[in-house]
From TrEMBL:
It comes from the Bacteria. It is an enzyme of class 2 (transferase). One of its GO terms (molecular function) is transaminase activity. InterPro entries: Aminotrans_3, PyrdxlP-dep_Trfase, PyrdxlP-dep_Trfase_major, PyrdxlP-dep_Trfase_small. This is alanine--glyoxylate transaminase. Keywords: Aminotransferase, Pyridoxal phosphate, Transferase. Belongs to the class-III pyridoxal-phosphate-dependent aminotransferase family.
Length: 428
């Protein structure tokens, strides 16, 4: 059945549409932290869709809200007043930490970042953007153009002029051997150097923890140090929270808060988990920045009632059940367990992360050389163990990515860690 579907898939969809596994999976349904394939095999989902299933698969509260909303109206456009959109915007504005915040809803993270770039370049009257090396910001013309992960950037002739800053990757590059304080000092000096010439860029865009780049996390405070420099030069800070938002990192609701000593970002973008799989993206900015655009504009599907209903029900569940706290507790145990398990496995360079956003870097044993083949082999072996995980994208496919729904239980964390241990040992 899968072979037949795969043949049809290949005949009609682009060759570059990424597919996991030599024998790709067809997922037919899910419940809680589990999904099932077309052959009836059950898997523990340690990738949460692709960080989209934030609370749980088929969460009854979200299903009910969506079906009730579908029974009333799916979409009437934002040309008319839209109660679920206003309610979700109020929640997101209040949660963002940005003063006098305005929210604009899109349908994806890419479109959210595109909008953020449009705001920043218009507000600052500059088409120059600072972005981080190894970053990923989406697949539109301008989002690919600022993406630092070399797996994407050469494919684009961007309308923006992008300068790449050191600091996103802690384990590779010229500053890899420095301790945290020296690493921050070196990255800040690099930023100051970039800013020393000509007109200042419009903004620095950065993922607080790089997602596609392999869940690589800079030392806490890096962006606070950057912020001080940026403010001095009149450059905006855009935090791309598409992967790091909504409590995933456990200690904080947003990734930027680990760097928040100098206040919140000027612009925050989000997507992925808020709709529990429904396509919601968005931008938050203080009103002065958001309202620098004077065109009378809508996004046809941004803010549509059906997705807003899902977002509200999902966010309510997340807060009422303290899933951020769960991510901190269960994620903390899982990171500890994975470190213990992998200490004797030479292909594992490090287990890193925060909350339920955990990266495992694989190297050729005895070296620091990236090992993407091992990551692919572990993905396949984990699947045979009934566990779905992810890996980094573009030029960093040697990192495994673990990002289960935030309702993961301790028993499921242990079950997944055991399965991953068997998978890692099987490829040695
Ligand atoms: N920004 C980050 C940090 C992402 O990880 C992604 C997608 O993986 C995007 C933006 C693009 O989001 P989307 O795929 O919803 O367009």
């Amino acid at each position: 059945m899968t072979d037949e579907l795969l043949g049809r898939h290949k005949a009609v969809l682009p060759d570059w549409l990424a597919l996991y596994y030599a024998d790709p999976l067809e997922i037919t349904h899910g419940e809680g932290r589990h999904v099932w394939d077309a052959a009836g095999e059950k898997y523990l989902d340690f990738f949460g869709g692709i960080l989209t299933t934030m609370t749980a698969h088929a969460l009854p509260e979200v299903t009910k809200a969506v079906s009730e909303q579908a029974g009333r109206i799916v979409h009437s456009s934002t040309l008319y007043l839209n109660r679920p959109m206003v309610e979700l915007a109020e929640r997101v504005a209040q949660m963002s930490g940005i003063p006098d915040a305005r929210v604009f809803f899109t349908t994806s993270g890419t479109e959210a970042n595109d909008t953020a770039l449009m705001l920043a370049t218009t507000y600052r009257r500059s088409n120059q953007i600072l972005a981080m090396r190894n970053s990923y910001h989406g697949r539109s013309f301008s989002a690919v153009g600022i993406t630092g992960n070399k797996g994407w950037s050469p494919t684009s002739l961007s309308p923006l002029q992008t300068l790449y800053v050191h600091g996103g990757v802690r384990t590779r590059g010229p500053y890899a051997d420095l301790d945290d304080a020296d690493f921050i000092t070196a990255c800040v000096a690099d930023l100051e150097d970039l800013l020393g010439h000509g007109r200042p860029p419009a903004a620095l865009i950065a993922e607080p923890i790089q997602g596609v780049g392999g869940f690589t996390s800079p030392p806490d405070g890096l962006y606070a140090a950057f912020r001080e420099v940026l403010q001095r030069h009149g450059v905006l800070w855009i935090a791309d929270e598409v992967q790091t938002g909504w409590g995933r990192t456990g200690d904080n609701f947003w990734g930027w808060q680990a760097h928040g000593q100098n206040g919140p970002p000027d612009i925050l973008t989000f997507a992925k988990g808020i709709g529990n799989g429904m396509s919601i993206g968005g931008v938050v900015a203080r009103s002065e920045v958001m309202n620098c655009l004077d065109s009378n504009s809508i996004s046809t599907f941004g803010g549509t009632q059906i997705t807003m209903a899902a977002g509200l029900a999902n966010l309510n569940y997340l807060v009422e059940h303290d899933l951020q706290g769960n991510a901190r507790r269960v994620g903390g145990l899982l990171i500890e367990r994975l470190r213990a398990i992998t200490a004797q496995i030479p292909a594992v360079k490090e287990v890193r992360g925060r909350g339920l956003m955990i990266g495992i870097e694989l190297v050729k044993p005895g070296t620091d050389e990236a090992n993407p083949e091992a990551a692919s082999a572990v993905l396949e072996a984990a699947r045979r163990e009934g566990l779905l995980i992810g890996k980094g994208g573009g030029h960093n496919t040697s990192a495994l990515r673990i990002a289960p729904p935030l309702s993961l239980t301790v028993a499921e964390a242990e079950e997944g860690a055991d399965a991953l241990e068997r998978a890692l040992r099987s490829i040695q």
